[in-house]
Amino acid sequence: MNRIFLLILVSIFTVSTASAQTTFLKKLKKGEKQTVVFYGASAAINTSNRAWVDQLRTRLERRFPEKITFYNCSKSGIGSFWATENFKDSVLSRKPDLLIFGFSENDAVTRFNNAPWYSGKCAEYMVDNLRAQNPDATIVLYILSERPLGQSAETRPELAAFNASCREAAKKKGIILVDYSVEFNKIYDAGGEEALKPYQRDGILPTRKAAQEILVPMLWDAILGRDSAKK
Boundaries of each SGNH hydrolase-type esterase domain copy (predicted)? Predict the structure, then answer.
């Protein structure tokens, strides 16, 4: 298999979508107000990590002024167990039209004693519950790095398997998957750990550089599709 074909495959599978234009975008273009909920762990809520969440919110509000209500219901130091137990109060109570969520980077931490399939099954549970409330909701599952560094690597020896279960869940449920690990792997393959460090604070959590160059552009394209070029 030649290198050009491999690069084409990477570009196709980095962001997989259920449709070319999301329901979220279609309703915004009709002038309907929409609610966005972010639901994740430290990567999405801690001040030093959440630049990508804040940047996405700013861009969406600039593009669709006074049309979007935005909630960040993420919580530091937790995984899918907490996420599923609190899904009704944290997410369903906000009645999201767009849910952006991901927990595999914490599910994989050994102290939580989870099996790799756990991330995917919990993701399916959350998708099913939101669809029961709102069948038209746009749902985005994200995966962070698959190259944790230092202590983060030691505490997540099976991270790849947890991420794989999320990929399978996204495929099974037909939701949008934004797999940041593909881009982080490319950086690592090109320059090793030293090249990757500027993108991963403490070995796995995203930096502002990662937000600007990778996370926000990929998420923006996934949500807005062909409209993404229109700022």
Answer: 44-207
Question: Alpha-carbon distance 79 to 169, whole Å?
Answer: 16
Q: Which one-letter DSSP state was computed for residue 214?
A: I
3-class DSSP state of 30: coil
CA distances from 42 to 73, 84, 104, 176, 190 (A): 11, 16, 12, 21, 27
pLDDT for the residue numbered 8: 36
CA angle at 169 for the pair 29 and 110, rounded to the nearest 5°: 120
User: If pLDDT is split at 50, 70 and 90, which confidence band does 225 have?
Assistant: confident
Bridge partners (DSSP) listed for residue 101: 39, 141
DSSP state, residue 78: -
Report strand pairing: 34-40 vs 200-201.
Answer: unpaired
Percentage of the chain modeled with pLDDT above 90: 87
